[in-house]
Amino acid sequence: MRTGLEAPPRAVSEDIVATIGDTPLVDVSGLSPNPEVRILAKMECDNPTGSIKDRTARSLIDDAEARGVLHPGDTIMEPTSGNTGISLAMIARVRGYKLIAVMPDNVTEERRSLLKIYGAEIVESPGETGSNGSVVMAQRLSHQEGIQMLFQYGNPANPRAHYEGTAAEIIRDCPEIDVFVAGLGTGGTLMGCSQRLKEHRADIQIIACEPLQGDPVSGLRSLDDGFIPPILDLSRLDRKLLVENMDAIIMTRRLASEHGIFAGVSSGAVMHTCSRVAATMERGTIVGIICDSGWKYLSAGIWTGDLDVVEETLDNGVFW
Amino acid sequence: MVKIPPVLRHAAGGTPTVQVGGATIGEVLIALCEAHPAIGAQILTPEGELHKFVNVYLNDEDARLLQWVDTPVGDDDTLLILPAMAGGRA
After folding, report:
1. pLDDT digits (tens, 9 = 90+) for A243-290
2. A112, A109, A111, A229: which is closest to A159 by C-alpha?
3. Strand B79-82 relative to strand B55-58: parallel, antiparallel, unpaired?
4. Which of A35, A37, A38, A91 is deepest in the core (most CB within 10 A)?
5. Which residues of A touch B55 (CB under 8 A)?
6. Which stretches of chain B sit within 8 Å of chain A by CB?
7. Ramachandran bin of A149, using left for φ above 0, alpha for ψ from -120 to 50, beta for the remaining angles
């Protein structure tokens, strides 16, 4: 039983957007090599579209509405490798906006399908230029066409979603947290949580993990291709660790087979990092983010395919 | 041991790893660039500083969040260099 919670929210939500957030923590200490270190998974896969990006998207749209730059019927453009686009598309549907998602042409078919289900228009950028190619193309198109871009990479409303939501919930549910681990994408989760958690207790360690692709040319979601998201301030991180795709796949499978948690590959990378950090701690509690659920990755054979084949698939696609 | 990513391998004569000595990351990188000047040409600025978009990982950990080039290294440690593919404008 969870304790310390506020009164439960009303039983009937005004719409699906209102159900975003307030995700549970689940004990997955079976993944810890150290019996003195607890690992808790923050289940962001429980959000309406199955990813933590629902928080980001709601914050970006709420902020644009509050600033008066977004009106019903308006079109929004956003570069996204999938999850943020799907979240924005869902909220756009509910609130009466149109979304154009600029995404690499090598993302999984499920992401494309979900965007279409939510009514978004997709503009493809070359897969070999990764997420950064999408950023550059969206910036050019939005400028040319005069379309509003919320720009999650540089918008303070992105980290604010995690300062006010994700981290506040973690402190409420697990005030004894010693280490926080999340995957590095836009930096929104890590920056917002770092600020809030360090206000709670300055000695909480903030650890980022990022993918090491087999070939750095396709390793484009990592910072190593030269694009540093404007909201990312490395000084707010205590450590930043690379995770190889193989390690991420193995832990993604363990999450499902040992804990019944059906999560995406970046969550496997986060849990691998939690496990690595746990091995070097004396005792304590680590909270890791389960960034999204596994549905969007079924076609990549993550859980069923031969490990080497899956690794090669991951090296050539965008899964973060 | 220094791991050389595919993009720099031609500059190291095609090898994926190079063994060089040094007590700190900086010393190892200097030894690497002396042994393979073509790598130095890619990861160093004309002033001999590491390019801003070159990241160095010590046992998979970002060295900028350790003590950067002053981080001590041992014989069993592995360095990985990941240089920028393109400039930093986006």
Report:
1. 988 999 999 999 999 999 999 999 999 999 999 999 999 999 999 999
2. A229
3. antiparallel
4. A91
5. 223-224
6. 5-7, 53, 55, 57, 60-62, 64-65, 80, 82-88, 90
7. beta
Q: Which two tokens stand for residue A27?
A: 């004990």
* Residue matched to tokens 């749209």: A61
Encoding tokens for residue A126? Answer: 């070359």
The CATH class given to the A16-46+165-315 domain equals alpha beta
- Distances in whole angstroms, Cα of residue A166 to Cα of each of A55, A160, A227, A302: 8, 10, 26, 27
Instruction: Read off the amino acid at residue A44.
Output: E
As for the ipTM of the complex, it is: 0.83
Q: CATH number of B2-82: 3.30.930.10, 3.40.50.300, 3.10.20.30, 3.40.30.10?
A: 3.10.20.30
Residues 6+ apart with CB under 8 A from A283: A34, A36, A37
